[in-house]
Amino acid sequence: MLYRIWTIFIARTKEFYRDRSALGWNIIFPLLIIIGFSVVFRSESQPVLKVGIIKPENVVTGNVDTKQFNEFMKLKYIDFIEFGLKENAIDSLQKFKIDMVIDCKSGAYYINDSSPNGYLAEQLLKGAGSSQNAFAKHSLQGRGIRYVEWLFPGILGMNAMFNSLYGVGYVLVMYRKNGILKRFSVAPIRPFEFLTGQIVSRMFVMLATTAVVYIGTVLLYGFQCKGSLFTLFLVFTLGGFCMISLGLLIASRSDSQEFADGLINIITWPMMFLSQVWFSLEGARPWVQKVSQLLPLTPIVEGARMVMNEGATLFDIRYQLLYLLIISCVFLILGSILFRWQRR
Amino acid sequence: MAMDYILEVKNLYKYYPGVKAVDDVSFSIPYGICFGLLGPNGAGKTTTIEVIEGIQKPDRGIILYKGKQRDHHFKQEVGIQLQHTELQQYLTVKEILLTFRNLYSRRANLDELVSLCYLEEIVDRDNRKISGGQKQRLLLAIALANDPELLFLDEPTTGLDPQARRHVWDIVQSIKKKGKTIILTTHYMEEAQTLCDVVAIMDHGKIIAMDSPINLLNKHCRGVTITLPSSVDENILHKMSCEWFKVNNTIEIHTQEPHDCLRLLIDNNVDITGMVVRSQNLEDLFLKLTGTQLRA
């Protein structure tokens, strides 16, 4: 059995790495995105600012200059997000989820010195209402994270998603359409063995390309992974396994590449936007945040971000890993039950 | 005795919506022969062979391999060449062969396989860059990767040029010499006559005749076929006691008395320029049995 799985693994892996265009694209695409965003966010700010307001219920305005505060609150294109606890607001600011925190009680504001958006929010606050600035400035201590650093785990997660879904889902549908699966079906190999060979090959390819992109980006930008690389490896291994299982489910029956392509698009695009790859959902409507939590890409991006940016341990990301494991099993079982060697 | 046959098919049925693809088909194949399923496209040859191979499930019927129901040994012991198979891209001929060979517990000698199927020159070539004939020989080699006892070949020479077809025939002859049993589907009567020891002629899901090619011809086709242009006056043809058919733009007359037939045509001033007279073959037999052409 293991020899047959190994045979399929070798054949599929050779097929992938000899396809230079696919190999190149899997490595170059995420690098290009990271380079592109680092250039863009070096000179420009995000179009929408997010400002956290600490406004305990028993405090109406506190020590703030009401006129300046009210004028600032009237500004367009700023999301004002209310926080009950100062610690939560400061935590979000540190994690780059928001750009500024205004503490109504103490009349102070907080920005991240390394954030261009924080600088802009500060200037807008200073210019609002009066020429006199009524707020006292506080800068956060320690090293904050750059947007590109915040983005990096998301790009890796997104790359793992596309790599897995297209590398397994799309390829299996093509195999079925071309009769390759039918040819294997008459050989003494069980679906479980064939699919395991495919899964292991794609896991290997996905982890290898992720490692190349990671190393390339570290060399280019000097990023640091604050947590352990083993924990990060585990996040992407389980994340890749989950996405590959989803790919198997997508490819379990169809013999139409167009249909599979459409299905993969329908699945990936919401994940791209709702799994916080590009921007935080802090302040978004609660149902959007709940939907986001259900998507398989969210625990991958969250887990990778926690490990890389915050130095989270295996224990800290246990819920993300557990969720990935559970939905991987669901996808894999469903995919195996529905799997068909040949077109109808 | 059951063990005289490597394969027995009894009362096999396979239906598709509105179509009886296989309709009460029965045959038994002794060890070491080449058994041909001959018929036009849509006759049910591929469905019959795919049901036996296990690709499709029969609606009714019994299939016995070596006297028993097929089990997990069946896939290990048979070799199968399908119609229209693509292969994994970017792999060389040798890598493709190794991939399939490694799936079996019994494995053919790779060098012998390459030599038998004339693959020496292309063994390190990307399988996307080989010709149609070379690909067909590679598919044949894949089917032989486990040194099978029973080999299924589904239209192995369809679409090949005459030289490539001859190459495949040579390979099949070599396999026969090794004592292997072969089941072959084809719509080329010449192929069936050259390769097969027993031929079953299929039409509309049924076997309409089955015997060795020589016996079939002796039994049904002892005469000659006279082919004439279709411009011949049909009233003259009606005067003949033998059978005649319109085939494309020609008239085919099947007769055991060519002298009488030719005399009648000449007496009626029929222009016999372009006339062809030849011995009858399986294609004529098929026309006689079904009233339609084999390659229609």
Stretches of chain A where pLDDT is under 50 for at least 5 consecutive residues are 43-47
Widest sheet of chain A: strand order? Answer: 2-1-3-4-5
Overall mean pLDDT score of chain A?
82
Proportion of residues in helical segments of chain A: 55-70%
Number of strands of chain B: 14
- Helix content range of chain B: 25-40%
- Oligomer state of the chains in this structure: heterodimer
User: How many helix segments of chain A?
Assistant: 13
Number of helices of chain B: 11
Structural class of chain B: alpha/beta
Largest sheet of chain B: 6 strands, mixed
Largest sheet of chain A: 5 strands, mixed
**How far apart are the first and last residues' alpha carbons of chain B, in Å?**
39 Å
Notes on the structure:
The complex is a heterodimer of chains A (344) and B (296). Chain A has 344 residues and is an alpha/beta fold. Chain A has 2 domains: 2-40 and 146-338, no CATH class; 45-139, D-Maltodextrin-Binding Protein, domain 2 (3-Layer(aba) Sandwich), CATH 3.40.190. Chain A has helices at 2-18, 20-43, 66-74, 86-94, 116-127, 147-178, 180-185, 191-221, 229-250, 257-274, 286-294, 297-310, 318-338, and strands at 49-54, 78-83, 100-103, 108-111, 136-139. In chain A, strands 2-1-3-4-5 form a 5-stranded mixed sheet. The longest helix of chain A is centred in the middle third of the chain and has 32 residues, at 147-178. Chain B has 2 domains: 2-218, Rossmann fold; 223-279, 2-Layer Sandwich (Alpha-Beta Plaits). With 296 residues, chain B is of the alpha/beta class. In chain B, a hairpin with a 2-residue loop joins strand 1 (5-16) and strand 2.
